[in-house]
Design goal:
single chain; 113 residues; alpha+beta; Alpha-Beta Plaits; four-stranded antiparallel β-sheet; 5 helices; 32% strand
């Protein structure tokens, strides 16, 4: 399982404009193969926005990045200083951390492997 963290600053777009955009595009992410979930992020005070993507595997993430939807995010002219980082999820310590989110992630990781 992989976790992708994307951060960027808004350019020529207000916080309110950004916050209305996900409501329009979020359904497109629901059908991305291998995307197990996306968490939308906003810190208006620091002009930092982005998302946390939980991927079945690195191949699914790479396929998304090559898709029109992925290119629409990474090439959006309103997203300045975009940084995308990919991390392998460490299943054993994640599961040992406890809580329903950790349990769900590790169960999903077991099913995916």
């Amino acid at each position: 399982m992989h976790v992708q963290i994307v951060n960027f600053n808004l350019k020529d777009m207000t916080d309110a404009e950004f916050r209305s955009m996900p409501n329009q595009v979020a359904p497109a992410f629901a059908s991305v193969p291998g995307l197990l979930g996306k968490i939308w992020l906003a810190d208006a005070g620091k002009n930092t926005y982005g998302g946390v993507y939980i991927w079945q595997d690195a191949a699914a993430m790479r396929a998304y990045l090559g898709s029109d939807l992925g290119k629409g995010v990474t090439g959006n002219p309103n997203f300045a200083n975009l940084i995308s980082r990919d991390f392998e999820m460490l299943s054993r310590p994640t599961g040992s951390s406890g809580g329903p989110v950790a349990a769900s992630l590790t169960a999903t990781a077991r099913l995916a492997s």
